[in-house]
Amino acid sequence: MQIPHVMIVGGGFSGTALAIHLARNATAPLRVTVVEPRQTLGAGVAYSTQEPAHRINVPASRMQLSGDEQGAFDRWYRQQPECSLDSVAHCADGAVYPQRGMFGRYLAELFAQAVLQHPQVTLRHIQASALAWEGQQLLLSNGETLEGNVLALAISHPPPSLPRALLPFSAHPALIANPWQPGVLDNIDSHASVAIIGTGLSMADVVASLATRQHRGPLLAFSRRGQLSRANLSGEWPEWTLAPQPQPSTRLWLHHIRAEVARAAEQQLPWQRVLDEVRAQGQSIWQSLSLREQQRFVRHLRSWWDVHRYRIAPQVAAEITQRQQAGTLRVLAARLAAIASRGDQLDITLHTRDGATEHHPLDHLIVTTGPGHEALTASQPLLLSLSQQGFIRADALGFGIDVDRHSHTLTRSGQPSQNVFVVGPAARARFGELMGLPQVADHAAEVARQILLSLHIKHAERCPPLAP
Ligand SMILES: Cc1cc2nc3c(=O)[nH]c(=O)nc-3n(C[C@H](O)[C@H](O)[C@H](O)COP(=O)(O)OP(=O)(O)OC[C@H]3O[C@@H](n4cnc5c(N)ncnc54)[C@H](O)[C@@H]3O)c2cc1C
């Protein structure tokens, strides 16, 4: 009998976590191949950065591969020489915020362990990109073709999409369209005038990276609302229990959460504890809303939710505050009204939210609007090939790929494709809160369970199944 074969495209956190969960839980022989062009597995877009200023945005104790190994990364990190060498990682309350690359290294070690500890599952990494799906075969950039029983897509973060007004300037020397590319910030002069489009997490990464390069020139960050990601909370705080809220409406939820924040404040508890609880219940809240209400959330509330929910490490927040206080960083609610080239520089005109017009000559304009999730299914040849053949389709909210409650992709006509799965944040239109590590880790464990079920392989019962 042939050993079933699971093909995973993408070896960032989601694909690697899925492979490890399959290895740990398959009770019969299985082959698992992870196709990933990076040299090591586990890092993906978030944890492959070698920038020392890029830190995990929650304490290490909250990063894990599965719910039953809480604190494992924190313990591992504290045993590494980097922990004592990186004094900035340590907060006064004892929490550590390691450089993001350390988490990638940790996952690569877990994968290597899984290869050794679960010999009945053959785990393999092919260092290549998957280019197309043709005649039941996956075509790879190294010339190999793969055939298998299950295809799992673990591709979450495409490069940032360039705002339309910037398209004619895509090759301009002053424009940095993708700040994640290694080395792109290295040639910025320490006195250069720099503007950043976007004021979220990627902007915080850029400000922190410029600080390590001793940049002290004028820095202007702008977005329509000019909202900065909030800082993470230090210290130990009691948990908050949300009062029940049965109304399936975005507006009522907003009122309810505001009232809960006020109630918490009366007890001297910070808003972050309330939001943490909303986030913990995020999947069930999201799934109780109709598509119309979800669309309302995306239109009116998402940018507010994002800056409160995706918080930044205290070290990065301190750098931003320090530059704001020194007057070298301005954060503005404004939209880009015009842009023109002047030699190697760019001139931009901004219309601010309070009605003023500002002109700025710039040495560099950096785009930090984040991954172009709305264009994921058209962002690369493999996903285009799968959508053209009708195996996948974009979801209705512009988050990624449409899936059913078992994470099967939905075909062009809305039917589940039995052997194609999505693992990780690309499935979040269905599940809601599916971006931070704890939820992505749980999702990978659940998709492993679904895949084993579809292959009629019994799952090793280590922990109770998650509610779908
Ligand atoms: C910059 C950033 C920082 C973050 N920081 C934190 C944090 O501090 N804490 C936290 O809890 N969460 C954080 N997150 C969120 C979270 O951890 C990520 O969403 C999670 O890592 C998702 O990983 P992924 O594997 O699904 O996707 P990705 O990271 O996008 O990985 C996908 C992988 O697929 C590969 N790939 C793509 N196309 C192909 C193809 N055709 N063939 C083969 N391989 C392919 C890519 O090379 C990539 O390695 C962060 C996210 C980002 C983007």
Structure in words:
By secondary structure, the protein is an alpha/beta fold. It has 3 domains: 5-158 and 372-454, FAD/NAD(P)-binding domain, CATH 3.50.50; 164-230 and 311-367, FAD/NAD(P)-binding domain (3-Layer(bba) Sandwich), CATH 3.50.50; 250-309, no CATH class. Helix content is 33%, strand content 18%. The strands form 3 sheets. It has a 7-stranded mixed β-sheet with strand order 8-14-9-10-11-12-13. Strands 3-2-1-7-16-15 form a 6-stranded mixed β-sheet, with helices on one face. Strands 4-5-6 form a 3-stranded antiparallel β-sheet. A hairpin with a 5-residue loop joins strand 15 (408-410) and strand 16 (416-422). Helix 6 packs across helix 11 (314-326). It is globular. Flavin-adenine dinucleotide binds next to helix 1, helix 2 and helix 14.
The total count of strands amounts to 16
- Ligand species: flavin-adenine dinucleotide
How much of the sequence is in beta strands?
15-25%
Stated plainly, the CATH topology of the largest domain is called FAD/NAD(P)-binding domain
Q: Summarize the main sheet.
A: 7 strands, mixed
Summarize the amount of helix as a percent range. Answer: 25-40%
Please indicate the count of domains: 3
Structural class by helix and strand composition: alpha/beta
C-alpha Rg (nearest Å): 23 Å
Q: Pick out the low-confidence regions.
A: 464-468
CATH first level of the largest domain: which class?
Alpha Beta
| Average predicted confidence as pLDDT | 93
The termini sit apart by 32 Å
Spatial ordering of strands, largest sheet:
8-14-9-10-11-12-13
Q: Can you name the CATH architecture of the largest domain?
A: 3-Layer(bba) Sandwich
The number of helical runs is 14
CATH 4th-level superfamily of the largest domain: FAD/NAD(P)-binding domain
- What would you call the shape? globular
Encode the helix/strand succession as letters.
Answer: EHEHHHHEEEEEEEHEHHHHHEEEEHEEHH
Keywords: Plasmid
Protein name: FAD-dependent oxidoreductase
InterPro entries: FAD/NAD-bd_sf, HpyO/CreE_NAD-binding, L-asp_N-monooxygenase_NS-form
Pfam families: NAD_binding_9 (PF13454)
